[in-house]
Task: inverse folding
């Protein structure tokens, strides 16, 4: 039944698709025991439907199940909210479409190479009709604001480096315990390289782009990702470690083409 015709509270009243087959596919293709061994860190984001708060389901803190993955991809109104524990969740893309900020916030003092994949581009043309307005609105809302996040992180890292240099000039006897702890922490600041792969939509794609999963559309998306990956990896120097103290280096194959 069309959700617009379903009675309030009915199972099919809040979405157009049933995710039951998605759960079956996840159980068939994903080894959740391997994820929960925690040999590799894994995290997905979702938004609490009632509180509006953004959360990360992280295997460093909890056991990951199919529902966590389904919640992270439950983009309304196409897909229904997913129950995890006692709460219900929608796709984290409503707030932030990648876990880059989650990664930056941890600051584990590890030099890091990040491949950031954005499925929506924040850049676009001026709308000329209502369909363009809806499509552009989704681009801006779901884009990961990657460049903004990395610019903020780079600026913050720069100030930390300046503070480290200043503390190095202060005689040790003039530093209190808190200052010495901060100096030691700043001495171990990691360097980070981010390679951005931002999807560039086709001119004919419209406002259904967030729930249009036809075979043709998926093949075009896969080909686009493959082409961008090849173009990025052809820049072999992008994968080199940045010079010590560089902070954060960002590479964007589309910006390079521009």
Result:
């Amino acid at each position: 039944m069309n959700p617009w015709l379903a009675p309030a509270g009915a199972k099919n009243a809040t979405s157009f698709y049933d995710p039951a087959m998605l759960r079956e596919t996840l159980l068939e293709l994903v080894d959740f025991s391997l994820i929960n061994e925690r040999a590799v860190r894994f995290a997905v984001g979702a938004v609490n439907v009632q509180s509006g708060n953004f959360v990360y389901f992280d295997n460093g803190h909890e056991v990951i199940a199919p529902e966590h993955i389904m919640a992270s991809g439950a983009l309304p109104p196409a897909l229904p909210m997913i129950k995890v524990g006692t709460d219900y969740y929608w796709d984290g893309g409503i707030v932030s479409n990648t876990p880059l900020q989650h990664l930056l916030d941890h600051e584990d003092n590890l030099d890091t190479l990040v491949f950031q994949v954005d499925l929506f581009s924040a850049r676009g043309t001026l709308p000329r009709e209502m369909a363009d307005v809806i499509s552009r609105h989704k681009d801006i809302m779901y884009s990961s604001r990657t460049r903004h996040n990395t610019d903020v992180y780079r600026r913050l890292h720069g100030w930390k480096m300046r503070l480290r240099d200043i503390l190095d000039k202060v005689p040790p006897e003039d530093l209190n315990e808190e200052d010495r702890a901060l100096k030691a922490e700043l001495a171990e600041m990691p360097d980070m390289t981010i390679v951005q792969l931002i999807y560039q939509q086709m001119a004919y794609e419209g406002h259904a782009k967030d729930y249009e999963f036809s075979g043709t559309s998926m093949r075009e998306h896969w080909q686009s990702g493959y082409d961008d990956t090849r173009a990025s990896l052809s820049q072999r120097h992008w994968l080199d470690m940045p010079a010590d103290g560089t902070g954060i280096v960002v590479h964007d194959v589309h910006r390079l083409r521009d």
Notes: The two ends are 47 Å apart (CA to CA). The first strand starts at residue 43 and ends at 48.
